[in-house]
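Sequence and structure are kept together here, with a separate record for every protein. A complete record is shown below as an example:
=====
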Amino acid sequence: MILSKRLHTLEAFCFNQNLGFRKAQTQAVNQHRPFASSSRYDNGSGVVDEKTPDGNRLGGVGIIKGKGGGGAGIGNVFDKMLPSFIPSPKPLFQHCSNPKTVSIIGAPMTFGQPYVGTDHGPSFLRKAGLRSKLIALGWLVDDGPDLNFSAKALASPDDMVHPHAKNSSMIGRGTQILSQIVEEKAMSGSFPLVLGGDHSIAIGTLSGILRARPNTGVLWIDAHADLNTPDISESGNMHGMPVGLAIKEMGADYTMIPGFEWLGKEGTPMLAPNSIVYVGLRDVDMKEREAIRELGICAFTMSHIDRYGIGKVMDMAMTHLLAHDPNRPIHLSYDIDAVDPAIAPATGTAVRGGLTFREAHYVAEIVAASGVLASAEIVEVNPTLSHDRGAHATVEFSLGLITSLLGKSII
């Protein structure tokens, strides 16, 4: 009876062989906190427990509310920023100069996909307290105004149109600007933290990072592979092309993509297929599937996470990227649509069956703990695509991910 009052819908947990329980989907509806988060923990016996707002365990599903909270994020009244003090074989953020500085780069691009609103992502994250939380984690914060990615600033009357690369001229100009700034910040020893904006901004982020740190490995957390090029894209939306344009073997002709001539200049470093790992895939185009197989790209879908668990998947992902150089810098590109839309609904290409709250945070935590995370971006936060509570939940969750990847510790 209590559960029926607390929860509007509750789908059963799926039991994966020898792997414990996994949430298929939970939508908590509480009169006062409809989008409060659940917090899972191991009680020492290997059994996952969760609690209701009253502190009652729900046998695997629930909501957490109240002072102190269990873990990071929504639903915790006091979400203290505690820098990690857990012993590590490597110093954290070893590629950053001392004192460690995070350079926040607001990249409010919205032309890579069909929905307005992704340009609000950076401002919403700042208003939610991003700077103060990073300071509390011990970072010096270098933050300036968002880049001007308005149509007025990026468009030109002479722009050519590509039938399979929508708004390419504006996106090309914007990502070129972003690429130069990211390169400058990385070269200075800062940690570039890019706030999107849609995922087309990663064209600029990857280019800048690879010029500054050519040996960078890339961890791509996303429901989608973003491995398209104009020649194979089904939609022509450029937020689905950043990886495809970064990998030479995908065969993109940059001279034929208006706005992207700069990307094809001689000497521009490209991303090797064995230097990227996907985690969380669950919506991949047919041509992208073929390319992943042909190029031998390391890819972990949600099925792999169901089978092995997020811990094993992340171990395999990091082992792949660091196999030949354990001190290699890592760039983390985190699309919020990697997370299940029951948790983060305010995004443009939501796909059910994504990462749970703790899986999403674990990804960020384990990469930070590696000591070699050197840059990151978070994209596709679109507060206009959900009602107020959904928008607030998505922004707060995204903020929690950022603090986790920048060193926040639960204890």
